[in-house]
Structures
1.
Amino acid sequence: MAAAPTEMDREQIFSMAEKEMEYRVEMFNKLTHTCFQKCVESKYKDSELNMGENSCIDRCVAKYWQVTNLVGVLLGNNRPM
Amino acid sequence: MAAAPTEMDREQIFSMAEKEMEYRVEMFNKLTHTCFQKCVESKYKDSELNMGENSCIDRCVAKYWQVTNLVGVLLGNNRPM
Amino acid sequence: MAAAPTEMDREQIFSMAEKEMEYRVEMFNKLTHTCFQKCVESKYKDSELNMGENSCIDRCVAKYWQVTNLVGVLLGNNRPM
Amino acid sequence: MDKSMMGDLNSLNQADQQRMAAMIDQLQIRDSLRMYNNLVERCFTDCVDNFKRKTLDKQEETCVTRCAEKFMKLSMRVGLRFAELNQGAATQD
Amino acid sequence: MDKSMMGDLNSLNQADQQRMAAMIDQLQIRDSLRMYNNLVERCFTDCVDNFKRKTLDKQEETCVTRCAEKFMKLSMRVGLRFAELNQGAATQD
Amino acid sequence: MDKSMMGDLNSLNQADQQRMAAMIDQLQIRDSLRMYNNLVERCFTDCVDNFKRKTLDKQEETCVTRCAEKFMKLSMRVGLRFAELNQGAATQD
């Protein structure tokens, strides 16, 4: 069983967790806006996403994720994402 | 007369007020940059705003405000702005 | 020898230093992205910066710096940068 | 934002877990306000180009409404796909 | 940024009001530094496109100066209109 | 980010210097995560335009790799030039 974290560890855990979450929120927002740009035509003829847009979105998210991992490796960031 | 706020309430008031102000500052900045983009021609022939630019700016601000309210209603945000 | 800073001074020093650093980080990021946009052709034919790109980058940084100072003067900001 | 991303929450004691949950709540509030601002900016930019009047005309209003509704649907879909990828549940093409 | 937006300041005691005012000051400092950065980026992007020399030529300098002055005038005007709308004082077209 | 920008660090006592150093570390971590996000967004936007499949093809992968490598080299070069200018060491054209 792991020892209880010290005061310093605890502050570091909070601080890293906060940055990690900010990072993920920002990634999600950039991903959303980028895939909106790439997949939704800006004429807005109706308010539903059609089938073409939906599959474009799924592939856009998948590719964005792969680019994130690829760039992470190049930056020397070894953990997934 | 209202009771004094508790410690918890007080922290929440500060925290919400801070986010609210950040939100408004960000809205103001986006509004400013968007209306600059829409109304000021980027040749910069002189350093004054001409009459056409000024009335464009006024209408741009008014319409941006309406879009903010319209989107707010769609997001289920009932308070004004 | 200067007197030790008071508690209030100290908090202000930290707070100003933090904003100053945030400002410089943001400037560096904007500068980097702007010069990437201006100097690197987006076909990405290879992964090296060629001589033309390198000298473009140097001049881009120098000019960005001058624009920062020029705008600073216009905003009534007298200190360098 | 996905609360499940905080797998190591369990190694913390109860007070710390509460503090972490409060932090997550704060980030979610800030995030939803930002999303609101970004959505307004995007739909305004795409839909409003005429500044001869100071009120939105019917066509602009329809465009903004559709833009916002499409964005929200897309955002939900992206959230689902994103969560699947976070769980390593992505399937092949 | 408009201090009048904080209508509920009055329900706080004096120490809290001071704390709130300090928070507003902090946000204003951060905001003005951000505005500075954004203004530089925009005027640079619009005015500087030639990288054959490392110093701004006269034409670029004039362009940047006008860009910044126009932006500041626009920003003030937007601030006034924004404050009117915040007070529900918008008049009809 | 350049630690040398904090010239007034020396007027602080040791505890304060540690606190300042910790603050700088925090900003650097946040900054590098933001840079990562921005780099991904830019290279994705420039390199990926085909959504007929859900995996990157070889050409897209090459493009992303080059984009990221160019960006990192540019970022280092900008950092050097920026530091020179910060020290007033800029030479003439």
2.
Amino acid sequence: MTAVPTPRGARRTGEHPGWYRFRKNRPALIGLGLVLLIGLATLLAPWIAPYPHQIGPFVNFSAANQPPSWAHLMGTDTAGRDVLTRVLFGYRTSFLLMLVVLGIGVPLGVLLGLAAGYFGGWTEAILMRLTDVFLALPPLAVVLAVTSALAPSLGTAMLALAALWWTWYARLVHGLVRSIKKEDFILAARRSGASTGHILFREILPNIISTIAVKITLDAGFVILLGAGLSFLGLGARPPTPDLGTMVADGANYLPEMWWEAIFPGFAILVLILGFNLLGDGLRDYFDVEVL
Amino acid sequence: MTYLSYIANKLGLALLTLFGLSLIIFLISHVIPGDPARLELGPLATQAQVLNLRRELGLNLPLPVQYGNYLWGLLHGNFGISLVTQHNVWHDIATRLPATLELVLAATLLILVIGVPLGALAARYQNSWIDGLFRLLSIGGVVTPSFFAGILLQIVFGYFLNVLPVSGEVALGVPYSGHPTGMPVLDGLLRGNWPLFLNALRHLILPAVSLALADLGQVARITRASMIDVSRKEYVRAQRSYGLSDASMTFKYMLKPSFIPSLTLLGLAFASLLGNAFLVELVFSWPGIASYAAKAILQKDINAVMGVVLVFGVFFVVTNFLVDILAGYVNPRLRLGTQAEG
Amino acid sequence: MGRGKRYRTGRWAAALSIALMGFSASGLARSLTLNAVQTFGTIDPAKMTDYTQYLAVVNLYDDLVYASPSGKIIPHLASSWTVGDGGKAYTFKIRPGIRFHDGMPLTAADVVYSMRRLLAIDQGPAFLWQGVLKPSGVTQVGSNQVRFTLIHPYSPFLATLPLLFVLNEKQLVKHQKSGPYGKWGDYGQSWLLNHDAGSGPYTLRTFVDGSQVTFQRFAGYWMGWPKGAFNTVNVIFTNNDSTVLSLARTGRLQLTSQFQAPETYKTLASFPNWKVVKAPSNTIFYLKLNTQKPPTDSRRVRWAIAYAIHYATIQHSLYPGAAPRGLLAPPGSAFSNPNIPELHQDLAKAKAELAKSRYAGKKLHITLTYVAGTAFEQQVALLLQSDLAKIGIQVSIVPAPWNRITQLATSKSQTPNASEVFFGPTYPSPNSVFYTQYDSNAPHTWASMAWLHDPQVNRLIVQAQDASGFAQQKAIYDKLQAILFRLMPDVPLVVQTYEYGMLKSIHGYTYNPIQSFDMNFHNLYWAP
Amino acid sequence: MSSPSDLVLSAEGLQQSFAVARSVAGRTKGWLRVLRGVSLELARGEIFGLAGESGSGKSTLGRILAGIDRPLGGRLLLGGRDVFGDRLENSLLFKRTVQMVFQDPSSSLNPRRTTGQTLEVPLQVLRLARGQRSARVAELLDLVELDPRYALQYPSTLSGGQKQRVALARALALNPQVLILDEPTSALDVSVQAKIIKLLLRLRSQLGLSYVLISHDLSLMRNVADRTSVMYLGRIVEAGPTPRIFQGPQHPYTQMLLAAVPTLTPDEEALKPAKVQPVGEIPSPSRIPSGCSFHPRCPFAMPVCSDQAPPAVPKGEGQFAECHLGVPAGRA
Amino acid sequence: MAEALLELEGLRVEFRGPRGISRVLDGVSLRVAAGERVAVVGETGCGKSLTVLAILGLLPQGARFRGRLRLLGREVPAAEWGRSKRPLPGVAMVFQQPMSSLNPVFTVGDQLRAVARTLPHLRALPAPRLRARLLEVLSAVQLADGDRILRSYPFQLSGGMRQRILIALALLKEPKLLIADEPGTALDVTLQAEILGLLDHLVRTQQLALLHITHNLGVARATTDRVYVMYAGSVVEEAAAEQLFSSPLHPYTAGLMRSVPRLDGSGFGEGIDGTLPSYLEVDLGCRFRQRCTFRDSRCEEKPELSSPSPERRVACHHWELVRAAAALEERV
């Protein structure tokens, strides 16, 4: 007499409800659009930048400090180079920084956080004290100290940032794991004989991956922000490699007369960070997770 | 657990953190391959002079011994001699810290006085145009690099409108002795020196706003989020249904419970405030500790770097300790101790 | 927004802000505010090394002798002197009636104390007299004379003496703390961190860590005061050109440093009540090439570099100044070799030199450092990078803080292939140029980043030190200059022109060949 | 009492405490005494009911019986072996004997794993081949009356009852002999609860399972359990065959519980003890009253009750109660 | 019938979501007379709590509602209920979660005073008299030691005390109608019984009307005069308590009652197959028909509320059949 019930929530035709919810979040869409647009422009920079040959060792002092015009939409800098071209290529430096820092910091932090949260004990105690100590250090100051100690270059800055960054993920993942490992389903999986590896990577990780993703998106903007600060202080990419923070720092010397030299690169940083933040906020709402 | 043992616990953690901090700072500063002796003697000194000074400064001892000396010195308030200014680093820091403190305090005040109520208001009018405007403002604050915000403010208020000064702490024509607090705004207020107070205040506005923006946005967002979170709580629904007024709900009965996460964030925000102070002080030629540190770092002034980063770290740890205590006060469960529940 | 409108609002708001700040126009008249691009590390005459330190010291203290704008040594505290014992004994007669800031008379004993102190502390200018003078060689003769007995004859000695400043012995003894100098304790070093013990035209009024410094006119100065002299001089610190402009525009700055960007001077000159004062200096902006490191160890590569540079861009737009002839500036100097030509870009010759070098056909790569944060040095670096790319030399640019450069310079292997560096004589003698930069026996510093090791050069430098008489010296220096030009250890890029922006009503600026001695505020006065 | 051969699981004098407060130095300053000496025996095919209010320690007892937590004292015996003493609680042997079903099916299923993936975890332990595993998953789903299609569904698309069936299937995957059922239906509506209980009863007879049923719902207990134990503050204060407990409750606490049960018919009403009114709340396990721990709430409390813990007094047919009221004079 | 205190007619509530519009309440009508005790029962998701929220003006954002509300014979404009967030005069709510319905960071006294200040008859009282009034209310809910309680934070009090404070908060208003949403459900049975007893006492002594929302049929029977049964957003049956429990007329009510385990150990029925239909589907027929054993073609048409007897209503085409089946079962 029991009719086989139709499972609820069977896929319906038409829009996926997740995409519908995301689509309703206009800021998140704008963020996604910005990040994709800038990412694409960065990839295609050699083809879409108006003067790609000005990226290498190039100067043209006779064309220096020209205000924005049709020929130079963002004007030219003190060495006569097209600011728009340098902004487009400057994004490459920002993306590189972000990819290296997060590419090293995130996996490391997630692994350590998983270990600390799940095993507890000494692993946890040491790791968490360590993150406390790292948290007490202003990241900018530390990176500045380390980079100037080793070599004031972008590479060292990236490594120093990565060396700091894992702590945030370790902390985040540690907290998540601690709360999730008390859930009955972990207990149940353990009672049914699941291995530790299975529990960590198949049971726990899938449940926190969305939070990590949100954190990564928000952090992408933050890393770029810090990187811009570092290059503003003179620890950016080596000339002639374009670097947005360096461009702002150089241009700031000629304010307000030659405003375009600092303002456009500054807004370029801002827009990219804005993109990542809007996207991150959108994802946070979408996944309904808490990330500081 | 009682409040007292809660405090003691937090204090223990803070001390432990400080110890780790000193170790890390020491290690970082001692992988610096620079030569402070060379620096002190000036560019034209001979190698023999340099070697002599290295011995004098103890730079040729093994690292653990140097760390021991360092810690011993710290405990006696001796941060070493700054190789650039030739002063005791502690003295350098003490003379510059008030300026930074003034800036950071002003920024904190802005964050608290504007950020928290703004977040509360946005949560109250969730999804309305007020909320939209607020989100725009707060995200604008978060995504604008503080140095760029500073530059923009300089252009608008310094150059175009020319209504606010764009560099320094007080104008030169205004006599200022640096006493008693070293913070001209406060000193002007304390001594009733209104020209000084007004002048210093005007100098403070742009740097403080640039510094505050990022964390203001962040704190406002957190306040908004936790207010919304709280607004979904059973007790808020209950209190609303009793007919409590909107204002008292928003600014009292919902704000206080949602203030706790904001408070924690504010503590964490201190690290970024101090970090951003580096940039803001440079942009505004602010005579604070961060620009001293930036210079010291670039010149590999080991003692000064160690001193400043340590002071920042201590500052941060102490602030967070205070935040914890305050959180304990706001949260009666921590203050009065939990009762064991069945 | 149009320019006109902006300035109108600007003026209106400036008036408002001045009113709000309670500025009094009369207060501005007798006080002078200038900016410096770095803080006062020290104001101790025994430790000074850079331009701000010299600037403080020259105003707080008096030196034994002074240099005229042309570099001639003229009496100052010493009213006259004699040289004897085959050029080994210098005896100076101290001018009577000079008083220190605390009212004590300045005596020969103070001079002895000051020189011995300088030699004992062995920092700052002490290197000038290393191997030339021992503390025991400094003696008082009679009541008002001082004698320096040199180890061996040394013709540039007199020219080095403007760097000896006289301190108040009694005052320092009163304030000295224990230290490594026996009965002299710490020689008053800690007290001098934020006090002065001089007799100079100005006294120290406030000195907060070298970052807020105010000088106060010393009414009892022995040389008297011109009408309109400044009662107080404030030095503020910023290397941010836009800040300088903003301060100048709002009347809070009356005099700029000499290190502003060319664009800034242009803007300042356009202000109705401002002028830009220029003075050709004897400082040259060099591209120093490490002659011990491949590929710049090849003379031909160095010449290829020299031919590749577009000097006109540097001399006319990046850092306006005269074209140098060889390595001794200024071209009009008495010792200058007139046969040495100016350098010009010639890419064909550059390529030819390269082809003849032992690195012909190889891909060349050099590193180039400059002082981080200096806008025009960065532009010059970019220019060099682009010019050298044209002859196939790849340049990687490494901006570094000045201290880092000075440190790299002490090691042959760490010194980069090429470095952008200013060098001016420390004292008005060609010896300062040649010995410091090119004698391989001189201490290795940022000045000798060429690491030149040439026996003939060394020999000629010593010959000139021992030589007596102008003609003899001139002949030696002519030969030396010709050899150095052929070796091309440093490429002279441009002769620095001092440029100061100042209010039109400030007068009296006088060039001086030593460091920042031209910023002796005693010369300046206000005349509307 | 059951004969030893019928015994599948037994516990002797189980004790459990949790630290509540620590000083700065990490020293424990207070304890929650959650279990204070609990013994029980579970026979093959039996449903053993554990009743009590929150804070009575019944869930803690359940977790120990399922091998999840180690007790601070006492023994858990399985086939004559001391489970915790021999460190068997994580062995496959124990897992294949005792499994647990949790109260809230929403939190006992991983939201990121499909039913099939969840059910395959225990099967991997058995080293079944992939084909065998999916066949077994279908079999398990069939066992709990779910369509095999559910193997591809995530928990969020299942109703509460369906989720609890999946949880039950997982518990059965290793063919255990004993299921610890911790409030298995309290998160469900009554109409669903009836279905789940029916399923549990069917499975017991079909698979010869034994259950330890933990529930605060006395009406449910009455209809399901063979034997019922009533817990109060970490002790079993009354136990016996279910009909006897409900028809002749001896302990005042049991009587109070019964008196509080909401009922649907006058017939049921008549079964409730009239003399005892529900009063007071269960105290915290950190401050357990002296003597008989129930004495502050007991309507029949005597002076002796606050001084001495009452002994377990047999009431016949395997029923006993820990109460001074039933102690023959002179023994107290 | 006594004078109607509260009349709700044809309440419809809809939410717009990603998959379309869900109609969560589909024409709910309720009536409470002065001094009357009324229960609304139903399982999770039937809409009983939402109905109360609508009356109290606490519908969530994004909800759209329609319907009429009359209070003390006066029509309440749509702006003053539903989502108005303003309390209705004379109506007070007792919340169900004693652990989460009190603000954790304010003292009990603070929270009581905050409510008192919104009430015209208490607002003007000087502090000492207000305090006396608060103590009086606390003693009305049988909380002794009022001084200490006023100074306490909620976490310092036991669950039972907190539940009493929630009642006190409602009583401050001196309401005519008390709305109680699952009071005591979160508490243990003994405590729940006490709280229900207290409510009953208050209703009788202060001549209050009570609208009691509960999922527990036994609780509804024990505390009320009249019962509404809700299913899937509609009232399916309405009757005096005794009538309803002796002879349910709606198949859902009957199935629900059969699902409840009985204290007399008489076992329990099969439960009800299937699950609640989705609110997203537009359904013109009886919403219970997929789960109903009586369904036939008539059920494709939505049944209206019919009156088998005065004061009794049922929304089923087959209510007579249900009654007959029950009678038959009784005889067997």
